[in-house]
Every structure is written in C-alpha cells, then in structure tokens.
Amino acid sequence: MREYNREQWQSFAAVKAAVEKMPDAEIGALRSAVEPYIAFRRKLHAFHERFFAPLCVARCFETRLSACCGFESIFTFFSDQAITYLVSSPEERDRIFQALLRPYRSDRCVYLGPKGCVWAVPPISCAFFYCDAVKEQVFAADSEAASVWQRLREAEKAFTYPDRPVLFDTVEALFRAHGVDSPHMYFHKSPGLLRIKRKAGLA
Prior knowledge:
This protein is mainly α. It has helices at about 5-20, 25-60, 80-85, 90-100, 125, 130-140, 145-160, 165-175, 185-190, 190-200, and strands spanning about 110-115, 115.
C-alpha cells in the first residue's frame, strides 16, 4: 500500500474505531452537528448538477482527462473523512476501504470509481474544484451561476475557515478527545490554520 493510501486508511480506520466506541447519545449529537453542513453540501451538489455536471462529465470523466480526479492523491481534511464515514451506509464505507486497496495508478484518484467518487460526501476541496475553462464557459453563459458560486464559496467559510468556531475544527477536537490522531487534522496541525485561530483567540 502506498504512503498516501496508508495514511488515508489509517485515518478512516481511526474514525471507525472511535465511532464504534462512542455512546449513542454522542453519535446522535455529532449527526445533529453536521446536518447544517450536509444541507450546505446538498445545495452545492444541486448547483453542480444544474450548471456544471453535463460539461464536466463530457469534458473530463468520460474522456478520463480530468484535472480534478486525474491524480492519485487528493487533499482531504480529517473532518472530510469523519463526516463522510458518519453519514455513509455500511456498503459505502466498505467501498472507501476497498478503493484504498486498489493497485496504484498515477492517472486517477484512488477514490474514483465507475460512477464517480466513492465518498458519500466528497472532500470539500474536490467539491469546489472546477477547471478554469469550464468555469469561464459556465459563467459566460449564465451570470446567475457566477453569483451563486460566490455565495457558496462564502457560505463554505462558516464550516471550514477558523476565524470563528467552525464545524471542521470542532469535529477534529471531538475525535482528538477520543484519542484519535491523524496527519489530516490540519485545524490542529497546519501552521496557517493555527495562525488564523490564534488571531481569532481560538488557539
């Protein structure tokens, strides 16, 4: 198993072990805490389906020339991993672990399956990635798309930009309290994010 796959596996395995030990009440509270984020991701998905999906499928997925899914390693936050595990069915969880066992391919993301990403809630960095050519085409054709895009980018900060208490930081802290450590816990390890937290009086 390559280093990237191994680190991803270890994070997901740590999430699995922690969730299995959590009291039902704590899991219920965590599910309630992430629901606003899930609702936001539904809006983001609806935006994608309306404005981008037809172009992206034809230009990237079907041709296998994707700039966003054409790399072995993608950027993930630990909270990306924890949230997608939490809301996934047992079958969806198995698909994630099975994907990490696949032989290495340098031309595609390890999580890219026959129908797209195997994550129930793909990493936020992936959800917001569009190549410049497609963005220019979509925004030129429909001015509403550009304004909706900007509103969604701003809304994302309420979950991921720690100049205030944000969900991704809170989720990391919860799992750290259960003894979980992961290289993907950037809200507790990234110098840049820690600077933002310190400036806001949160670290």
